[in-house]
Amino acid sequence: PAYFLKMPWQFKKVVWLKVEAVDMFKNPPRDYPAVTALTKDGAEVQVDITVRYQVVQRDDAIKELVRRYPDLMFEENAIVPIVREEVRNIVAKYTLTEIIEKREKVRLEIINATEHRLISDPTLKGCIKIIDVAVRNIDIPSDVKKAIEEKLAAQQEALAAEYRKKKLLIEANATALAKIISAKAEAESRIIAALAEANATLIRAEAQKKAIILIISAYNSTEYALIQQYISALEKVAEKGGLIIIVPQEQGVPVLITPPSGSKG
Question: Does the model's pTM come out above 0.90?
Answer without folding.
Answer: no
